[in-house]
Structures are given as structure tokens and as C-alpha cells.
Design goal:
The chain is built from 16 helices and 22 strands. The protein is of the alpha/beta class. Strands 1, 2, 3, 4, 5, 6 and 17 form a 7-stranded mixed beta sheet that branches. The chain has a 5-stranded parallel beta sheet with strand order 8-15-9-10-11. It has a 5-stranded antiparallel beta sheet with strand order 18-19-22-21-20. Helix 8 (223-235) links the parallel strand 10 (207-211) and strand 11 (239-241). The longest helix is centred in the first third of the chain and has 17 residues, at 60-76.
């Protein structure tokens, strides 16, 4: 019996309360928990604040609700252009911000404790502390788990400059608390979050000054995208300053003033509110991870291998806490891998597929991308061709009076293989999906061209762009022979 017990101890797993404990109920944590429950695992989801995390409460949902109100305000100002009587737009800023909260409340049930418990997930409220590779404390309660997934997300960065103590500063997390419209708003940052919020608040009647450290907006996109967006912003009344380094915030008789260093010298910008959108940092401290020896990378994110396992073999991670792509859809994508790997790693582990990562910036016009753009292709020394189709050639865009923008396709030289696509224009975030699918399954532009698209739609632009590629790659050496054949078919000798 002693020999048999020793043998069984080697092949039987240790006993745990749960198969999986997930820390954080944002996008990554929610997907991890319900996927694990669907795989018949006993899973505990722990959240110290609100279910839904950043996306629901402070990010995607509120920002898109704000963008909708701001866009309508801008459209109403164009009523005469559409043949309607002039409309005087009155913005009730407090009601706009209250609507944002109503939208959050309407979406909230999708991420609620009740819903996830109905899916088989046990939920706990409180701060989780990892006290050993297999143990987590939630308040006075200690539980054990075979595997742990850390999905604690990220938080906005605030530059450490003198004068922050003079008054509250805003971030993409806290801006939703505003109820009084700031007359003068400074937005620091030229990335997606900064651009979306700067345009929206400008359309709602704020005088917006955008301060950018670099030399253009949306630096990850091609220069023509940045130039087009700047032109739109300036036409809409935004003031954009480039190559400005933050110096300090000082008090003056009319409020606060931002001091910057620029190539032309010192710059002073008065403001009522200042919003920092200069990036996000992973949230890894305060959960016992550092005490346990879980390694982090130079930016403070969890250091993980390609399967999302950390330096402690029983702990996995997903979402903004690990990166590198800080998107809700990427957090969900990673969560699938982290969960399956955590539950079945005694048999196999799969590396996360990062080959095709689409994203969109919800300015107006929208900017969406998948794969390579020109600046990346040049940087990588990749031979490529560019096919471009302008929205001004698309019937639906003309009918909608939304002709700003284009579709730009990067293809392998001499082939219809799609290497990347950038769309600037209305519904770009929707239209990019066709290219994501095509690239995932190796479908070229000829396949898109041969697919029926509904007329008139903005999505038809994808087919039209493929047609541009086809016209530029006709077998010209056959054209004289085709001409002779057609003459012969008419009986002309």
C-alpha cells in the first residue's frame, strides 16, 4: 500500500479550491473567466472596483458615447449644406455627460456579476493578493487555485511636472466626472485617446489647445494620415502645437497656465482644465506579485513568454498588464490563449498569434488599420506597391457628403497579396473588417473584386479599391491580341 500511495502521489494532481482564479474583471478577465467556465473549470473572478474594467467604465464605452453626441453637434451645424434650414446648436454639457453615464448603465448588465454567475463564474469583490504561486487572499478569505491569471489592466500616465498640486488634472479615467463645460481645455498628447477627446470637446464648444511632444498626430500612422487629420482639426477650430516639451503649471490671476519649451522659445497656454493623454502604464503593484518575485519588463508590465505565462509558472496574464497592444479586442484575444494554456498546460501551450492586429482611432473621419503601412514597410526594407482609392469617387460617400478620406492598400510587388490596409474615412472601423478576414485566410484583392458588394454602401469602396489594383495590373502585352480578336469577331479583317 505504501508503494501504491507513492505512485499515486506522482500521477494525481494536488487538490485546489479552483482550477483558475482570475484577478481583474476588465475585458481580459471577463473573457478568461467565462471561457474557463465553459470549459467546465471551477473559476473565481475577483474585482476590487467595478465589473467591466476600463473599457466599460472609463474607456471605450464612455468615449464612444461622447463622440456620438459631439458628432451630431457637428452635423447639425452643417444642416444648410444638406438642404435644411439653419440649426442653432445649443450644447447642454451636463446633459451630454449624464448621457454618457446612462450609456454605461445600459451596457453594464452585459458585464454584471449576475450575468457571469449565470455563465458559471463565481465572482468575488475585493482586492486580491497573491500570497503564494497557488494561493490568493481576498480580504480575510484565502483560496487555492491550480493556475492564476492576472488581468489587472492599465492606468493613465501623468507626467511629473511642477505645479500639479495647484489643481485637479484630468485623464481618460477621470474626465467623465466633468459636468461644467471648460471654456479653455488643454489636451496633452497626440495619440488616439488625445485626438478623440480633443475633437469631441471642441465640437461641444470648448476652446481646445492640443499639445504634442512629437512633430505630428497619430505617429504610428503614415504621414499623409497625420497631415489629413491636422487639416481637419485646424478647420474645426482646434489649436495644435507640435514639438512642445512640458515645463510646469503655474497659477495666475485667471486660473492656471501651462508653460512649455518649444523650438521657438517658451510658450504659455492658459486653461481652465487640462487633460493628460500621454499613454498608459500597466497596473502590477499592490497584488503581491513583486513579493512573489514575478518579473516585470522595463515599462513595468508583467514579463511573459509567448504563451502568456509569467516567470512564476502557475501565473499567467492577459491584457494591458502585459501588452504590447493596449486594445480591448487584443485583451480578449490574449485572454483566450491565457485561459486555454493555463487550464491545459500539462499537455500543451500555444503561442499568441499577433500577426494580424486591427485597430481604429475614432476621430472624424475615422482612421483604421490592419497590417503594414508605408512607413513600416520602408523601415523593414519590404518591397511593396500602393493602391489608393479616394472616398470622393464613391457614390455613397458623395450622397452622404462625406468624401474626406481614402483606402490605401499595401501589396506585395507584382501580386495581389495584401500586406496591409489603412482606411481614412467614414465607417473605416467597419470597412477594415473585410481586409482582416481576407488577410487571415490568405485571400488577395482578386477575391475581393469578384465578391458582390451591396450598392450603394461605403463598404463597396473595398471592391472599388481592388478594381484599381486590377486595372493597374492588366496583362498589357495581351491587349493588342485582344483588339485583333475583337475586330475578327466583328468580321473586320
Amino acid at each position: 500500500m505504501v508503494v501504491q500511495s507513492k505512485f499515486l502521489s506522482k500521477i494525481l494532481p494536488e487538490k485546489y479550491d479552483y482550477n483558475l482564479v482570475v484577478i481583474g474583471a476588465g475585458s481580459a478577465g471577463l473573457v478568461s473567466s467565462y471561457l474557463a467556465a465553459g470549459l467546465q473549470a471551477r473559476v473565481l473572478l475577483v474585482e476590487q472596483a467595478k465589473m467591466g474594467g476600463d473599457c466599460l467604465n472609463r474607456g471605450c464605452v464612455p468615449s464612444k458615447a461622447l463622440i456620438r453626441s459631439a458628432k451630431l453637434a457637428a452635423e447639425l451645424q452643417q444642416a444648410e449644406h444638406l438642404g435644411l434650414s439653419r440649426v442653432e446648436v445649443g450644447v447642454d454639457f451636463a446633459r451630454v455627460m449624464e448621457r454618457v453615464q446612462r450609456v454605461i448603465a445600459e451596457v453594464e448588465p452585459h458585464d454584471s456579476v449576475a450575468r457571469y454567475e449565470s455563465l458559471g463564474v463565481e465572482c468575488a469583490t475585493g482586492r486580491a493578493t497573491v500570497v503564494s504561486p497557488h494561493e490568493v487572499e481576498i480580504g480575510a478569505r484565502k483560496v487555492s487555485a491550480r493556475r492564476i491569471i492576472v488581468a489587472t489592466g492599465g492606468a493613465p500616465m501623468i507626467p511629473d511636472i511642477p505645479g500639479l498640486e495647484l489643481g485637479a488634472v484630468l485623464t481618460s479615467d477621470t474626465v467623465w466626472q466633468l459636468r461644467k463645460k471648460p471654456r479653455r481645455l488643454v489636451v496633452v498628447g497626440g495619440g488616439p485617446i488625445g485626438c478623440e477627446l480633443a475633437q469631441s470637446f471642441s465640437r461641444l464648444g470648448c476652446h481646445v489647445t492640443q499639445v504634442v511632444h512629437g512633430d505630428r498626430l497619430l505617429k504610428r500612422e503614415d504621414a499623409d494620415v497625420s497631415a489629413a487629420l491636422l487639416k481637419v482639426f485646424e478647420a474645426q477650430g482646434l489649436t495644435v502645437h507640435f514639438k512642445h516639451d512640458l515645463n510646469s503649471i503655474v497659477a495666475h490671476s485667471h486660473g492656471r497656465r501651462l508653460l512649455c519649451d518649444a523650438p521657438t522659445g517658451g510658450v504659455e497656454i492658459d486653461f481652465d482644465e487640462i487633460l493628460f493623454a500621454v499613454g498608459r502604464q500597466p497596473v502590477t503593484t499592490g497584488f503581491g506579485l513583486e513579493e512573489l518575485g514575478v518579473k516585470v519588463d522595463p515599462r513595468g508590465g508583467l514579463l511573459a513568454d509567448g504563451t502568456l505565462r509569467t516567470s512564476v509558472a502557475s501565473i499567467y496574464c492577459a491584457g494591458d498588464v502585459v501588452g504590447p497592444y493596449l486594445f480591448t479586442h487584443m485583451a480578449a484575444h490574449q485572454a483566450g490563449y491565457a485561459t486555454v494554456n493555463a487550464l491545459f498546460d500539462r499537455f500543451w501551450r500555444s503561442k499568441v498569434d499577433y500577426r494580424l492586429v486591427p485597430w481604429a482611432t475614432f476621430v472624424d473621419p475615422e482612421v483604421a488599420r490592419i497590417g503594414l503601412n508605408e512607413q513600416e514597410a520602408k523601415r523593414g526594407g519590404i518591397a511593396y506597391e500602393v493602391t489608393r482609392f479616394d472616398y470622393g469617387e464613391l457614390d455613397r460617400s458623395i450622397a452622404d457628403s462625406q468624401t474626406q478620406g481614402w483606402i490605401k492598400i499595401i501589396t506585395a510587388q507584382g501580386k495581389d497579396k495584401i500586406l496591409g490596409v489603412t482606411i481614412v474615412g467614414s465607417h473605416a472601423s467597419d470597412c477594415i473588417a473585410e481586409y482582416v478576414l481576407a488577410m487571415k485566410y490568405g485571400l488577395g484583392l482578386k477575391k475581393i473584386l469578384s465578391t458582390i458588394h451591396i450598392y450603394p454602401t461605403v463598404a463597396e469602396g473595398n471592391k472599388m479599391a481592388a478594381g484599381v489594383w486590377q486595372r493597374e495590373h492588366l496583362p498589357v502585352q495581351l491587349l493588342p491580341w485582344l483588339k485583333r480578336f475583337q475586330r475578327w469577331s466583328r468580321g473586320c479583317w
